[in-house]
């Protein structure tokens, strides 16, 4: 187990593998509203805390009301979203927040920094996670812990992201778990 890896669950196979590891936290991606209860029951049974990505839950709106519903009914450790209203709602409900940003160019980086400063999430997830320059700049300018995610599939890329300031690495690549 690597303390800086945050397994990203995209499928039932991922979920099954996760429960067979020593990890005690994960990110739940790409799920269906009808599966949330059984997934959360299984994770709770294994004492695994979950960050739920609101934007990727199929069958429900991706807004602050969905966020409130998820928090009140399933009590995840945290909420992941690209939407500031969702992050603000989760913060108001005393839930850990992960604001996901996509840094494609210098304009997107500047805009992301402005939003991070305004929203003040607990964490910011920078995609693609191989964007080490963006990780460094966001660390320096926002005082927010960075999670690197996306396109990371080697140990070397994990190490580089951590060396450049990432606190965690989200990956659905089970070989890195």
UniProtKB/TrEMBL annotation:
Keywords, in A-Z order: Glycerol metabolism, RNA-binding, Transcription, Transcription regulation
Cross-referenced InterPro entries: Aldolase_TIM, GlpP
Statement: the UniProt record of this protein carries the keyword Hydrolase: no
GO biological process terms held by the UniProt record: glycerol metabolic process; positive regulation of DNA-templated transcription
Pfam family, one: G3P_antiterm
Gene Ontology MF terms in the entry: RNA binding; transcription antitermination factor activity, RNA binding
UniProt keyword annotation of Transmembrane helix present: no
SUPFAM superfamilies reported for this sequence: GlpP-like
Cited function: Regulates expression of the glpD operon. In the presence of glycerol 3-phosphate (G3P) causes antitermination of transcription of glpD at the inverted repeat of the leader region to enhance its transcription. Binds and stabilizes glpD leader mRNA.
Protein name stated in the entry: Glycerol uptake operon antiterminator regulatory protein
Annotated organism of origin: Staphylococcus saprophyticus subsp. saprophyticus (strain ATCC 15305 / DSM 20229 / NCIMB 8711 / NCTC 7292 / S-41)
